[in-house]
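In the previous chapter we treated chains in isolation. Here, by contrast, the input contains three separate entities that must be folded as one system, with a combined length of 459 residues.
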Amino acid sequence: MAAAALSLDNPIFRMYMGYAFLVIIKTIAMSFATVFFRITLKVFLNQEDVASFDPNKTNKGPQVHPTIERIRRCHQNDLENVIPFVLMGLLYVASGPTTFAASLHFRIFTASRFLHTYVYIFSIPQPTRVLVFHVGVFTTLSMAYTVFSQVAF
Amino acid sequence: MAAAALSLDNPIFRMYMGYAFLVIIKTIAMSFATVFFRITLKVFLNQEDVASFDPNKTNKGPQVHPTIERIRRCHQNDLENVIPFVLMGLLYVASGPTTFAASLHFRIFTASRFLHTYVYIFSIPQPTRVLVFHVGVFTTLSMAYTVFSQVAF
Amino acid sequence: MAAAALSLDNPIFRMYMGYAFLVIIKTIAMSFATVFFRITLKVFLNQEDVASFDPNKTNKGPQVHPTIERIRRCHQNDLENVIPFVLMGLLYVASGPTTFAASLHFRIFTASRFLHTYVYIFSIPQPTRVLVFHVGVFTTLSMAYTVFSQVAF
C-alpha cells in the first residue's frame, strides 16, 4: 500500500492531484491578471516595456498602481501559502491519511484560498481576510501534524 | 528498492519528511510573525486593514516599518531557498543516496536555515548571514549534484 | 507501471529530474547574482550589511539600484513560474504521459525560462519577454490539462 502511495493506484493521490491542480492554476492566474492590468493601465517597471506598450507616454504618473499592487500582494500571499500546501500535501499523502481526513483538508484549504483571493481583490472589510487566511494556514499545519507522526529523524 | 523510494518503506524518505516538515513550518511561521507585528505596530498595506485594525488612525506615519520589512525579507529568503531545497530534496531521495549522506545534507541545510533566521531577525553583524546563507545554498547544490548523476535527458 | 511512476525505474521521471534540476539551478543562480551585485555595487537593505561591506559609506546614494532590482524581478518571476512547473511536472509524470509529450513539454519550458532570463537581464525590446513568458506559462497549463484528466475529486 505504502509503496504505491504516490501513484494513480492511490485514490487519495488522485484527489490530491485535483486540489493541487486547482490551487496551482489559481496562483498562475494571478500572473495573467498582472500582465493584463499592466498593459491596459500602462503601468510598467521596465524601460523596454514602456517603449513598446506605451510609446507615446500616455501614463505620465508614477509606475505604481493600487490595483496592480493589490494583485501582486495577493499573488505573493499565494506563493507563501499554496506552495507550502502542495509540498506538505505530497508528504501528507505519502504518510497514509484516511480518505475522509484527506478530502476534508484538501477541500477546506482550496475553498479558503479561492475565498481569500475574492476577499483580497474586492477589498472586503476585515477581519474577513485575516480569518480566511488563517483557515488555510491551520489546514496546512493540521496536515503537517499527521506528517510529523510518520517521520524518523 | 527504487520503486518504493518515495514511500514510508524507505527510511531516507521518512527522514526527508522530518526535515522538510521543519523547514516548511519555519517558513510558515514568518507569516504569523508578519501578521502579529502588522497588527501590534498598526502598519498596513490595505485600506480595509487600517479601517478595521486602526480605526482611530493611531499610526500617522508611513505604512512601512523596519521590523516588518526585515521579517518580510527573511520570509522571501526562505521562499527562495527552502522551496528549492524541498523540491531538490525529493528528487535527491528518489535518486537513491546513502543514509549517511542524506542525513548530513538534511541536517546541515535545516540548521543553516534556522540559524539564518536568527541571524537575520536579530541583526547579527556580517559576514555571518552571508556565510550561513551560502552553507544552505551549497547544501542544496550538493544534493543537486547527486540528482544530476541519475538523470537522462 | 503506475506504481513506480515516481522512481528511477521510470525513464520519464529521470527526464523530469533532469529538467527540474536545470530550472531549479537557474533559479538559485539568481541569488548568487543578487549577492554579487549587492557587494560589488555596495547597495544594501540592512544596516549590518552596510557596516561590514561598505564601512566607509562609499555609496552615498539610495540603497536601490536598477541592475539589482532587475535581477530581483527576474528572480521573483522564476519563483512564480519555475516552482509551479516543478510541482505540476511531478503530478504530470505521475499521470502517465507519453515519453514524446513529456520530453516536448520539459524542453520547451526549460528553453523558455533560460531565454526569459536572458531577455530580461539584457533588456531585449518587447514584446519578446511577454511572448517567452507566455510560452512557459502555457506549457505548464498544457501539462495541467493532462494532470486534470487523471484526477478524482
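The helical segments of chain C are 11-41, 47-53, 66-94, 99-121, 128-148. The domain at 2-30+64-148 of chain C is CATH 1.20.120.550 (Four Helix Bundle (Hemerythrin (Met), subunit A)). Compare these points with the single-chain example from earlier in the chapter.
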